[in-house]
Design brief:
about 200 residues; alpha/beta; Rossmann fold; 5-stranded parallel beta sheet; 8 helices; binds adenosine monophosphate
Length: about 200
């Protein structure tokens, strides 16, 4: 199963992707997490992207696409993967399609989690509060100003991706306003339906 999870920041992409990992026994590949690991590891890549991420802007297509290409070549992605946070631009989506085509593969679905913007801001505030309560470190881009920029970035840059996947009949819109369980169940139901179609 090869999946892409799309949706604005705070839509629950990471949470749903983690739940699908167990269901389909495939790894979750989060470009945001890979980049944050590079930043905290102080690697060359991390040093190059830290300021961009702190501003809530997108890292260049070339850098992210190469990172994903290297990752999906690994053995654990042989039977599939769930990409969370990638693609973010039509260029990245085209690069992913080409990467898969070269291996004779295609996506099973691009899942779009649909959530109202007002709810997203509330969820971000809750993520910060929960992280602090657990004694964790809050993401440097989880503050109201940067979050607003990330939402706008999504609307402008990632919005056209929905059309891209719609045209390819790979888009699966899901109501992300429901509870966690209900969202997972709906994703599983739609994927099963598509697999048997
Ligand atoms: P996320 O954890 O998905 O919200 O990503 C956090 C940050 O990492 C984003 O605001 C971007 O700066 C960067 N990033 C993650 N994925 C991508 C991507 N596919 N393209 C460009 N930048 C990305």
């Amino acid at each position: 199963m090869r999946l892409v999870v799309l949706g604005p920041p705070g839509a629950g992409k990471g949470t749903q992707a983690r739940r699908l990992v167990g269901r389909y026994s495939i790894p979750q590949l989060s470009t945001g997490e890979m980049l944050r690991a590079a930043v905290s590891g102080g690697t060359e890549l991390g040093l190059a992207v830290k300021a961009i991420m702190d501003r809530g802007e997108l890292v260049s297509d070339d850098v992210v696409t190469q990172m994903v290409a290297d990752r999906i070549d690994r053995e654990d992605c042989r039977t599939g993967f769930i990409l969370d946070g990638f693609p973010r631009t039509v260029e990245q989506a085209e690069a992913l399609t080409a990467m898969l085509q070269r291996k004779g593969l295609k996506l099973d679905a691009a899942i779009e989690l649909k959530v109202d913007p007002a709810v997203l801001v509330e969820r971000m505030a809750k993520r910060v509060a929960d992280t602090l309560a657990a004694g964790g470190t809050v993401r440097s881009d989880d503050n109201p100003e940067t979050f607003a920029r990330r939402l706008e970035e999504y609307r402008q840059t990632t919005g056209p991706l929905l059309d891209y996947y719609l045209r390819r009949s790979e888009l699966v819109p899901i109501d992300g306003m429901q509870g966690l369980e209900a969202v997972t169940r709906e994703i599983e139901r739609v994927l099963a339906e598509r697999a048997s179609a």
